[in-house]
Write a structure and sequence with these properties.
By secondary structure, the chain is α+β, with helices and mostly antiparallel strands. The chain has two domains: 4-46 and 148-206 and 292-347, 3-Layer(bba) Sandwich (FAD/NAD(P)-binding domain); 92-140 and 211-288, D-Amino Acid Oxidase, Chain A, domain 2. It is built from seven helices and 20 strands. The protein has helices at residues 15-26, 42-45, 64-82, 99-108, 148-161, 260-270, 317-334, and strands at residues 4-11, 31-35, 49-50, 53-54, 59-60, 87-88, 92-95, 137-140, 144-146, 165-167, 176-178, 181-184, 187-194, 211-219, 228-230, 234-237, 243-246, 279-288, 297-300, 307-311. α1 (15-26) packs across α5, α1 packs across α7 and α3 (64-82) crosses α7. It is globular, with a radius of gyration of 21 Å. The two termini are 40 Å apart. Bound molecules: flavin-adenine dinucleotide (FAD). Flavin-adenine dinucleotide (FAD) binds next to α1, β2, α2, β14 and β18.
């Protein structure tokens, strides 16, 4: 049971809630977190990859020059606090699927905008154990993988040790206006931030397009453990000696059913660049909090004072959350404008 007066009540402790809570804490704000933990939340099943160059056309991801350095510095600060590692800066090897893709890359990699993330053009077949790349590959730096489960466990324990964490499923009607701002049970706060992922709650008027994703955890005796491989899907080492393979994207179904179709699709895509036998250890499913225009959702509720949203992280929450949490903090505390592309005002009618 938590009680007391806080600057912030945060509802939801996925990547969004955890990163925001630690950002506010670093800024000297008092925070109480309430979460209803489930094993299959998006943040718990995420592979945790931060990849600055993505997609079939190998484009630099949105705001990469800001998001990636900020994310790296944030997770490193968290590592210092926790005295354990969360961020693994594995180079990402993009495996070309055709000679056309290789040519495409050879023609564009010297573009200035890639300079913080790319050091070479197309490489001949990589010499990584268990991996084949007949059309060559290219290497992306400046990204890596965050162990989201370890990070979330740390944030929960940290706030629990302060007596500022509670497990509960909050209903909308439980949040009441108060002289301090809002109240929930014995907690009062100046502001509440909903970090509830794909659970729309107050925010059902926004164009959420929840996206189901399935990922496999596999083991292999033969695969390179120091690189993330991407080629139609990813194969990413975990710190337990296994690999994440995935992921699928399904806009039509938002159930948490594990499907044979996804299992076959992932194994088929991985088999294009590795013939190493893979044993499936686990099959996980989650729902990404995606948005119609593929941009996050941040800002104050149009009619509810002191009530804010931090969601819409889609498939890139790990790299985007640290910069966005800082933006939201500056917006609430100092009135700084949110980036127009993330501000929920873009959907005001
Ligand atoms: C298969 C898969 C693979 C992925 N891989 C990657 C990847 O490699 N890299 C990457 O960056 N992203 C990846 N993602 C996306 C990533 O998981 C999300 O961007 C991010 O984790 C979303 O975090 P969130 O905190 O907004 O939502 P969530 O993780 O959904 O967290 C929301 C939290 O709020 C709680 N909650 C909800 N409603 C209430 C309530 N009423 N009361 C109390 N608590 C509540 C939930 O229980 C949960 O704990 C992947 C997602 C999937 C499904």
């Amino acid at each position: 049971m938590v009680n007391g007066v806080y600057d912030y009540l945060i509802i939801g402790q996925g990547v969004a809630g955890s990163v925001l809570a630690m950002t506010l804490h670093e800024q000297g704000k008092s925070v109480c977190i309430v979460d209803s933990p489930k094993p299959n939340t998006s943040s718990r099943v995420a592979a945790g990859i931060m990849n600055p160059v993505t997609g079939k056309r190998m484009t630099l991801t949105w705001e990469a020059d800001t998001f990636f350095p900020t994310a790296k510095s944030f997770y490193k600060r968290m590592e210092s606090m926790a005295d354990r590692r969360f961020l693994f800066e594995h180079p990402i090897v993009r495996i070309f699927s055709s000679i056309g893709e290789q040519n495409d890359w050879s023609g564009k990699w010297t573009d200035e905008k890639y300079k913080n993330f790319i050091t070479t053009g197309a490489l001949d077949s990589p010499m990584f154990e268990g991996v084949s790349a007949p059309y060559g590959s290219m290497a992306v730096t400046g990204g890596g993988r965050v162990d989201t489960n370890a990070f979330l466990d740390f944030v929960r324990l940290y706030f629990e040790s302060l007596g500022q964490f509670a497990e509960s499923e909050i209903e909308l009607e439980d949040i009441q206006p108060s002289s301090q701002g809002i109240s929930w049970q014995n907690v009062s706060a100046a502001n509440v931030v909903y970090c509830v992922g794909a659970n729309a709650m107050h925010w059902g008027y926004l164009p959420f397009t929840p996206m189901k994703g399935e990922v496999l955890e596999v083991t292999s005796k033969k695969l390179d453990q120091d690189h993330i491989f991407v080629g139609g899907c990813f194969l990413c080492p975990t710190q337990q000696g296994s690999f994440y393979a995935g992921a699928t994207y399904d806009w039509r179904n938002t159930n948490l059913e594990k499907t044979e179709k996804a299992r076959v699709e992932i194994l088929d895509k991985v088999s294009k660049f590795t013939s190493s036998p893979l044993q499936i250890k686990e099959h996980r499913v989650g729902i990404r909090p995606a948005v119609k225009d593929r941009r996050p959702l941040l800002g104050r509720h149009p009619s509810k004072n002191n009530q804010y949203l931090f969601s819409g992280l889609g498939s890139k929450g790990v790299s985007m959350a640290p910069s966005l949490a800082m933006q939201l903090y500056s917006h609430i505390e100092h009135g700084t404008a949110l980036h127009a592309e993330v501000d929920i005002k873009r959907f005001d009618s």
